[in-house]
Amino acid sequence: MAGVVAARGRAGAEGFAGPVICHIAAWSMPRRSRVATYRARMPRGRDHLVWDWNGTLLDDLHLVVSATNAVLAAVGGPVITVEEHRTQYRRPIMDYYAEVLGRMLDAEEFARLDKLFHEAYRLGLAECTLTADAAVALRSWHGSQSLLSMWFHDELVPTVDRYGLTPHFRRIDGLRAGVGGGRKASHLARHLAAVGVEGRSTVLIGDSIDDAEAAAYVGARCVLYTGGITDPARLRASGWPVADSLTEAVALAAELD
Question: Could you state, in order of their start, the residue ranges of all structural domains in the chain?
């Protein structure tokens, strides 16, 4: 495998622009059959796979909800359940906080809450494990792979390495801005440019509608994983291919033109 590129620096302001093109496909083959026959299939037109980290390869949903509740408690907000979080969560995260709190936030307050979230998140990170079939799914892809996360780059790279996943990826990119919470689209465009692949050759596997919108922005396809941060009913209603496991997600990705 090629080495991981972990360049330092700060990206420009986060942003999202451009049309969202929905790719809707009917999956007539039973799911078990799709997974079982995947290895016998010839590779199709898309040979690069971009993985999301939080909620996809890393099973951290309960920690995310716990850290979110720490944020809400600091400003007198309600306690949310895992189910409520999965139903309401969206990016930009500032908009999600505003909905839960019932009031608008300015950039300064959101920056303070984002800092509180990550402080609480770090306290529980050591207890998180990889998603059960993450290692198998990574080994089963026929082409190249990279990882793009909206978590801070300087923390992401050593964390991925501690889980022993670094050799799978041509490149690992995280957030290089000081405050998170924005959309992924522009980050995915820069990530693919750095990897040296085009969107039309790429499939993204993630756990949020924002992942699918980012993929559409660059002309890539997307498979959404139901075990992460977003309620499965929301994912299925989006019209994007949906998988209940990461190995199934890879099998679906291999079928996409």
Answer: 31-60+129-255, 61-127
Query: How far apart (Å, rounded) are the C-alpha atoms in residues 158 and 166?
Result: 9
Tell me the pLDDT of the chain (257 aa) as tens digits.
434 444 333 333 333 333 333 333 333 345 444 444 443 343 456 999 999 999 999 999 999 999 999 999 999 999 999 999 999 998 899 999 999 999 999 999 999 999 999 999 999 999 999 999 999 999 999 999 999 999 999 999 999 999 999 999 999 999 987 666 578 999 999 999 999 999 999 999 999 999 999 999 999 999 999 999 999 999 999 999 999 999 999 999 999 98
- Model confidence, pTM: 0.82
Question: Does domain 31-60+129-255 bear CATH number 3.40.50.1000?
Answer: yes
Distance CA 184, CA 52 (A): 10
